[in-house]
Protein 1
Amino acid sequence: MLGEMNAHATIPVSDLDEAKKFYEGVLGLEEVGEHEAGAMYRTGTGHILLYESEYVGTNQATAVSWEVNDPKAVVDALKKKGVEFEHYPELPGVTLEGDLHRTGSMVGAWFKDPDGNILCVGNAM
């Protein structure tokens, strides 16, 4: 049933206008239209909905992951825009290589948006 349906991420933010600056200016997402609850962005074949919430920053797990062909190139590009990356050396079976986490053939990197939502880029999700 749901395996055949599209899904989208919903991300709480404290200030929608400020969040838009990050998601558009830093991450390069394009807003596809206002939504009654916030702002909708296309990403690949999916969508992300940003909405204002009092529960901003309470999720301590990854909110969104993007599958990319070259994680290092994406990390380097985001660092040039001021993004700081998180390091999780305690993850089992993971080797930390600069800002990249490697486990087998999977390589990923985590960073936070201005509200503390944890985002990820990696080559296999």
Protein 2
Amino acid sequence: MKKFTVIGLGNFGFHAAKALFEEGNEVIAIDTDRVKVQAIDPYATEAIVLDATDKEALRSLGLEEMVAVIVSTGTRISISIMICLYLNELGVKRILVKAIDPDHEKILLKVGATEVIHPERDMAIRTSRALSRPNMLDFIPISDDFDLIQISPPQEFLHHSLKDLNLRAKYNVHIIAIKKPAPKGFVLVPPADYEIQAKDILMLLGKSEDIKKIKVLM
């Protein structure tokens, strides 16, 4: 069982803690607000009223044993920076911190954040993409150069085999899996003779610049 800690139980922190707990993980949820701590209590292994800017209080929790710690302290920029610094000094391996703006992100990365979260921005981008390109179901940046997307197949892909489409040669992208309608399930690394069907969901991996060529088809 994996162990996580969520510091700050506003809207984002509450739902992050709840989702992790419902996935079967151990979750320590922390906030200075007793009402928020009581609200998360049914969805956490341990819910604690604690000031996370108290380094010794954090040390007592053994957070270095956590898979990750999420910090979501709202608009209190200085507090999130201080907590991030302390977590880094305490040896937490993975520190995810919610940022308010690009300058906040730069500071967080300098004091030890391993990942910076912009939930409003990221959700706005995903929503806009879903509206402008309804065939694109999900978009995940894998690195600075590579993306993974899930799409409904463009019309010109239908009833053609992967060999005929030859996406690797034409677009330099790879179909790594295909989701089928239930109960047919999931086809991992589909064979060359597989024919694309209308209800298939294609999982494509490739460089960002090449993925863009596929998006144009949608």
Protein 3
Amino acid sequence: MTFKAADVPLVDIAQRNTLRLIPTAYFKPPVLRALVDNDKELSALEQLEAYTSRRLVKSDSMDDFDRNRFGRSHIEAAFTYNRKGGNRFSDETMGAWYAGFNERTAIEEVAFHKSRELSFTNCFDEVGQYQGLYASFIGQFHRIKKGGKRPLSLHEDVDKGYPAGQALARDLVAQKSRGLIYPSVRHKGGTCIVAFQPNVIQDVLLGPKWQITWDGSPDWTAEAV
């Protein structure tokens, strides 16, 4: 079944502490801080960087984005750097912020995609560390309900699910949707959220670090570090 925006109802939510996991290689303190003596000088350098940084160049979706809060660089990165082929609800032309409603869901989603990446080389020897970022959401969001017939956008096969999901996302974004809540495809019973607008991502806080290990097979283990 293919969903259009009209098939997805709006719901009011107040969801705290959703979890996004990012590789620790991409979680670093501001590189400019070591070049200055105080926050005022850092602010001046950041303004200069903004003129040339792809991440910091304002797009239409970031015109009113509050840059003076923790986590802003990670939010900007999520809306700037896109995976080739896109993700389930974002194509190569649009960024988005994905998160799980709990740790298990976030881990299952990240581990699936990394396992799929490793399968391309058939080399399952990997230890990855991921930094958790908590974020809260409040307001009206579209929601694909659990139960009933599963829409094509939630198909387990990415070659089938992603084109349908990206088409639905474009339809929702055209209607100024804040984001979409949907059942996790990789964690049965889990729930995910994708934010289409950076300003709806609130109260970003550091979460736990997780290490995910592949020891010669697609099976993986995860532990807090």
Protein 4
Amino acid sequence: MQDLYGERTDYRAAHLLESDSPADPFVLFDAWLADAFLAKNRGVLPEPTAMVVATSVDHQPSARTVLLKNVSDEGFTFFTNYNSRKGGELSRNRRVALLFGWYPLHRQIRAEGTAELVPRAESEAYFATRPRDSQLGAWASEQSATVGSLDELTRAYAAAEQRFRGVEVPCPEDWGGYRVIPTMIEFWQGQPSRMHDRLVYRRSGLSWTRSRLAP
């Protein structure tokens, strides 16, 4: 059995200081995202756009990993099946939390806010850029629904291939994007002795306030 009590990493990195941090959290996010892509190019971080989306309905939180597909000063965008569990929960409670875990860099980013549907044209534009196999998968899979077997999914995919043979695959009506509009973004940088740096930005009207949290 693994010695979980004894398993630990003593993080060592440059400090995340207020004096070096921009007033706009999205500027800092873009810089850290660029570092994450550099780490991918070095073979250190396989999925720089991976983020955990946490939802909650009836006092039961649930979380899953999705891929970030756009970030702007409006928020963070991802795409999914609207009839999936996350889609159903977001239709009842738009409040969400996000987590980017860039652990090889000894960094993580948390965000909290509200998810809004992106315009249909934006969903269709992104869907058109997806590989055809992924487009067909969106038609073949009723995401989060119970299926009888792997063969059932294979047949559903084959049926989608046949349905759209020789033509472009359109974006399903029940598939599209959400944009998470954050009210809080926290940047975490690992430090020795568990004295980690934590800078939190909170939205105040059209601007942001910044403060440091104890580790």
